[in-house]
User: What shape does this take?
Amino acid sequence: MLSKKHLLGIEGMPIPEINDLLDRADYFANRPKQSFPDILSNTTVLNMFFENSTRTRVSFEIAAKRLGASVLNISVNGSSVKKGETLIDTATTLNAMRPDILVARHHASGAPLLLSQHVDAAVINAGDGRHEHPTQALLDALTIKRSLGRIAGLKIAICGDINNSRVARSNLYLLSALGAEVRLVSPATLVSPYFAEMGVPIYTDMEQGIAGCEIVMMLRLQTERMEGREAPSQHEYFHLFGLDTHKLQKAAPDALIMHPGPMNRGVEIDSKIADDNSKSLIRTQVELGVATRMACLEAVAGAKL
Ligand code: NCD
Assistant: This one.
């Protein structure tokens, strides 16, 4: 069970709670065909996605259904948000319908926190602006644990557009808390000095950054959150920071590759690597997303049987 009602971020989350969620997600992952209709029976889950999403929204929906919940998807295009309703008005309206769990994705950092202050439901952050994406970090940690048997002591490089990535932030908190040696690899314009002040090693050279790493996690250039010309041209970016067979030779001999998706092939990652199932964990990440979100939904519902 979680000590807080909502799951808004990994920062500050007690390590035993993280481990409990990972253990429970592992349990569900070992039973991929099984449903658990009693766990969230009589529970209504509302998916509110104010930003595009394929894998996160769908995996929350499948996870909730496997636990026996009723699921409603609010599409922003068809909602009053397009008519100018504020987030708080929307939250208050939806609250009146008494959902038990609200899964929210929003372009503004802090929006799920704001929602949690105006609804009775438990809120799960499904990605807010540049801030956090806690369920992605949990599924990434589960993927690493199931693939390599541990997280502590691993050298993990998170590479790409760090500043605009909520995935990078949540993973940095989570993987460091579990004892990994996390480093960031990024063009200087896409990694703020804040990370160096936190004591995280920063590399602006890709080959040096991934040297000896057992896990190389790639990120998309999130141009929708960029304000100016922080990123070089896609061609130049691929040349300097795109993961290809040549650069990958610098990593540990059996290094594994991760990416939260959506991928931009030929920009941050070469297709040859992305599609090589002996190296790429990308499909496994998507698969484990369902089990991880089952564990998270169950935990916020406080419904562990
Ligand atoms: C990420 C996100 O939305 O933050 N995607 C995801 O949830 N799988 C990463 C991204 O959009 O690049």
About this structure: The beta strands are 44-49, 70-75, 101-106, 122-128, 155-159, 181-185, 202-203, 215-218, 256-258. The CA atoms of residues 63 and 293 lie 6 Å apart.
